[in-house]
Structures are given as structure tokens and as C-alpha cells.
Amino acid sequence: MSEKVLMKGNEAIAEAAILAGCRHYFGYPITPQTEVAAYMSKKMPKIGGTFLQAESEIAAINMVYGVASTGKRAMTSSSSPGIALKCEGISYMAGADLPGLIVNVQRGGPGLGGIQPSQSDYFLATRGPGHGDFHVLVLAPSSVQEMADLTVKAFDLADKYRMPAMLLADGTMGQMMEPVELPEPKEVTADKSWAVTGTKMERKHNIVNSLYLKPTELEEKNIERFERYKEIEEKECLWEEFMMEDAEICVVSYGITARVSRNAIIEARKQGIKVGMIRPITLWPFPKKALLLAADKVKSFLSVELNMGQMQEDIELAIQCKRPVGLCKRVGGMIPSPEEVLNSIKEANK
Amino acid sequence: MNYKRLTLFAGHYGSGKTNIALNYALWLKNNAVPLQTEKGSAKVTVADLDIVNPYFRTQDSQKMLEEAGIDLIVSQYAGTNLDAPAMPKETYGLIADRETYGVLDIGGDDRGALALGRYTDEILEENNYEMLLVYNQARPLTRTPEAALEVALEIEGACRLPFTGIVNNTNLGPETSAEEVLASMESAEQLSSLTHLPIKMTCLRRDLILELQGKIDNLFPIDLQKLYYQIQPTPGI
Predict the structure, then answer these.
(1) A187 and A277: one domain?
(2) Shortest CB distance from B231 goes to which of A15, A32, A262?
(3) Are B184 and A1 within 8 A, CB to CB?
């Protein structure tokens, strides 16, 4: 047997988290992410870890807050309506500068919506999921292999910048099966000298808290955090370019729709249309520079997403409205076929 | 290959039950001796009894089954936004109709198998069934025969219907190679001796069959369902 295994996207997240040193999982079941919890419930007890099905999504995220404040890697996972419930806790984590992983395997909304795939939590994820001025790191996998790799990356970045990270997948990514080469297990080496671990009477107390009694102090803290965000936007943007060398149309798409778009682009090229794709891998930070550079070369952009046009706005902002940005969308749990994307590409080519 | 009136495929989720059930139903349609009195090919019905997972199911292949003249029983809620663990009401008709071959896809691990228990007494009484344990060594939670045995015992415990054979379905999806399937036979045979069950067949993607003919007994060719998310190879690479 090769080292590859055949995994569901949701399983790949769970296994990769364990390999990244996460030993604390707190969750609550919801389709289409339940396999993350199911996998953790089987695996964690065997390796001395903690799996806990919390009484609610809100309880689960606050358990992540608790473990994260001791410096240990912790995570929770849910799908859109459950993530909305977690927003309070995510904001508290951001306010306390705590790293941790929140997995969102998106389904259709608003409200109870549906159980089929969606990307309609783009705004929720990229604008800071919760009250207050903050961001979380947002990573958008487009294969089961990336579900594993970006889970590890999310933990590393969260530790490095002391902030929560969100893995933003969708129902299809969670449920589909592909071969995966799992990452090597690793020791967590990030500096956690801020963690609440007991002073042993050898140092001052560490305090993990999001409450600042003096408004000046709170203002300073917010400004410091945004300095960090600026550094992240400089250093940590990830994206992939596909057939962009001579492209006149630039498709922008992530996750499941990037896969469909890729097939549509191959077909369009056969028909002589010069089209390529920029696939953002981090949605926050958003690869603004790559898009702005592309704006000088292409005639138009086409955003392909499973919502009413949320990333479309970020593309317009990134390219400073230099070119028109079209939209190819399906919502409500529907996914565009490669033919539908191809038709939108042809429309943009007119 | 021997066959029975009812064939049930069960095993760890993601082991490949749905694909095998579809391919096996087509095989029965083309090869089985009709049970009904009127003329024509054998009557075959596939029943999707996965009450747990609402994604990627036999329903996705409804058109292919229709064209082949195979009936499909599926929960009325499959493919909708209602995440309800509902058993299709037509299942009992299939269990009772002794003129029709039934291929039952038992998804959802032990939880899914629990629902099958509703029909166990009828199936045992007729005694014309095969209950097959689908095994994929490339799945992370059934990497060893011992782990697969654990899953098998959970399923048997839930549905009270004993397994009668093993289907070795070791695969890595589109990246499966003949060597990997050949190498998996050792582990499948260990599972066979652990469970005291024969290996009924070893599944292999149709285009790899020639490579292993004569090397493995009872090879069963599989055509994969086409899914919209599969990435095409890039031209020129």
C-alpha cells in the first residue's frame, strides 16, 4: 500500500488536526460536517485526547476558548447555522488574542436554510465573525488534500499571530472522497509564554481576558491588533494561478466552485477563449495584490461563487474597479455545472 | 459467480457500498436467471437504505438505472433539504416479493444497520440472501483486518443479520493501481480467517481488470459513478 489513504474531506480535517497536535475537540452535530465529530469521537480516546459533544455550539466554542488559554491546540467544527451561534465566542477569542481552529463546512442559508453545499458565509467569515473590530484567518480548501494541509496551516498561523483561524469549506468538500497523503505528525513549537498554566511561584500571573477597563487601553489594543493584521496581509496571502499567462478573462473562485471553474476553463480554452483563474486559498487575507496585478492584463473578471455575489465585492475593491467584475452563481444548495460557468465565460468574452 | 435473491452490502462508511451495489445490480440484470413467471430479463431492484448520509447516493445514478430497467427504492427525502433518517416504505415490498432480485445498500455504519433489523426475521426465514462485508483497506479507520472486524461486529450487532462473505474493495478512487489491489489481498485474506467468511469477490476498476486476470479469484469489474466535482486533467500536462 502507498502512504495515501482514501478520505472524506471531513475526516481529513479531523486526522490532520490530530497530526498537527490538537488533542481537544469540542463540537455539536450538524449536517454536513458531522463526520469531523464522528471521527474525533473514535480517535481521540485512543490517543489520550479529549472529544466532547457539548450541550450547544456556544458551549463548544467557549470550551475552545478555555483550552486555548492554556496554550494547547483546540478546535471546534460546525456548519453555517452553528457557526452563527459560535460568533460570540469567536469574538471573545479574538478579543483575548487566543489561537484556535473553527471549521465551517457551509450549507445553505439564511435561517435553517438547507443541508446542501453553499458559500454564503463568505461575508460572515471574512469580515470578522462576531461583534467588534477584528479578523480571523480564513482558509478555503479546494481538495481533500487541502482540507488536510490547510488544517495544519490554520493551526500554525493561528499560533503565530495569536488569533482564531477558520477553515471555510462547504458541504461538497466535506463529503467528497479523494486520496490524501497525510502530513507528518509534529510537535507544537510556537511561543506560548502568555498561556495560563500556573506560575509555580516562578513568574507573574498571565491574564487571558478580553475586558479592558480603561478605554485608552482598549483603543491601544485594537490598534495593535490591526498592525498585526497589516503584517498578515503582507506576508500570508495564498492563491493559485491557473492558465493566467495570456488570459484576457480572469475567473476568481475558491473551494468547490474553483474545481467546476477549472473544468469550464479547460473547455473554453479548447474553444479558443483566453481565460484563466486566480483561486484565492486565503480569503482573509484576500490576495488583493495578485488581483490588482491581473487587472492590468485582463479585460474582465468573473466571480464564480455559491452566493449572491459576496466575493465579487472584494474583487472590485482589490482591483479598484479598474475592470468589470461579472458573477456566475447558484444558491440554495445548487452548484453550477461546468457548462453554466462556460456560458458565463462566453458572455464575458463578448 | 453464485448469487442469491437478496444481496446486502454493508461496511464502514465510505467503503464503496453504493458503487458496488449499482454495479452488482447491473450484473444481476444481465446474468441472473429470472425469478418471475412472465418473460423477459430478471427483475432487479436497488434499495438505498442509507438513513444517515444525505450526500452522494444511489439517487445520483437514477437515470442510469432507469435506462438499464432497474427499479430504485430511495427515501423520499434523499437529495432534499430534510435531514430525516427515514426508511423508504417500499422496502418491505421488495423483501416480500420473491420474484424480484433485491440489492440493498446498507449505509451509515451500525446506526444505519439498526434500521435494517426491522426486516431481519423475514430475510432469515426466506434464507436466500447474501450479507456482504465491504472492505477497503485504504480507508483510514479500516487500515487493518482487526479494525474492519470491529466495524463488522458493530454492524452485525445492530441488525442481527450475520455476514456471509467479504467484498474486497480496496481502492484509492481514481488513483487506484493494480499493484495496490494485489497487495491488499493479504489483508483481505487475514480478515477472511478472522471472520471465518469467504472472499466473495474483489472489485477492480474495469480498465485495470486485464492486469490482474488470473492473479486474483473472482474479480468484479466496477464502473465508477461520474461526479461533477471530479477535476479533468489539464491538457498538455
Answers:
(1) no
(2) A262
(3) yes
Cβ contact (<8 Å) for A108 and B55?
no
**Where does B127-221 have alpha helices with state H?**
145-159, 178-195, 209-212
Q: Which of A15, A115, A172 sits opposite B83 (nearest CB)?
A: A115
CATH topology of domain B6-222: Rossmann fold (3.40.50)
Asked if the structure places residue A208 within a domain, the reply is no
Do both A23 and A47 map to the same domain?
yes
Q: What is the pLDDT of residues B118-146, one digit of tens each?
A: 999 999 999 999 999 999 999 988 999 99
Give the three cell numbers for residue B185. 489481498
Rg (CA), chain A: 20
| Total domain count, chain A | 2
Nearest to A272 by CA among A193, A196, A346, A185: A346
Residues of B in contact with A335 (CB under 8 A): 228
Q: Which of B49, B58, B43 is nearest to B5 (CA)?
A: B43
Q: Hey, how many other C-beta atoms are within 10 angstroms of the C-beta on B213?
A: 10
Q: Is B2 on the interface with A (CB under 8 A)?
A: no
Is A210 a member of any domain? no
* A243 and A97 assigned to the same domain: no
Rounded to two decimals, the pTM is 0.93
Q: Is residue A271 within 8 angstroms of chain B, CB to CB?
A: no
Here the CATH number for the domain that contains residue A281 is 3.40.50.920
Give the cell for residue A91: 469574538
For β-strands A164-170 and A177-180, DSSP reports them as: unpaired
How large is the ipTM?
Answer: 0.88
Q: Do A270 and A229 fall into the same domain?
A: no
Q: Which of A216, A233, A250 is the last residue of a domain?
A: A233
Tell if the CB–CB gap between B81 and A179 is shorter than 8 Å.
Answer: no
Let me know if residue A249 belongs to a domain. yes
* Contact across the interface for A177 and B55, Cβ inside 8 Å: no
Same domain, yes or no: A136 and A250:
no
- Output Rg (C-alpha) for chain B, integer angstroms: 17
Structural domain that includes position A320:
239-349
Same domain, A117 and A193: yes
Q: Does A263 contact chain B (CB < 8 Å)?
A: yes
Q: How far is CA B168 from each of CA A97, B17, B38, B118, B131, rounded to the nearest angstrom?
A: 50, 11, 36, 27, 14
Mark whether A193 and A269 lie in a shared domain.
no
From A233, A253, A288, the end of a domain falls on: A233
pLDDT of B80 above 90: no
Q: Is there a domain that residue A213 lies in? A: no
- Mean pLDDT per 10-residue segment, chain A (350 residues): 82 97 97 95 96 98 98 98 98 98 96 93 98 98 97 98 98 94 92 95 95 96 98 98 98 97 96 98 98 98 98 98 98 93 96
Probe site for chain A from B50, B57, B59, B81 (most A CB atoms < 10 A): B81
Mean pLDDT of chain B: 90
> One-letter amino acid identity for A103?
V
| A115·B175 Cβ contact <8 A | no
Please compute the mean of the pLDDT values over residues B31-59 and round it to a whole number.
Answer: 85
* CATH number of the domain enclosing A153: 3.40.50.970
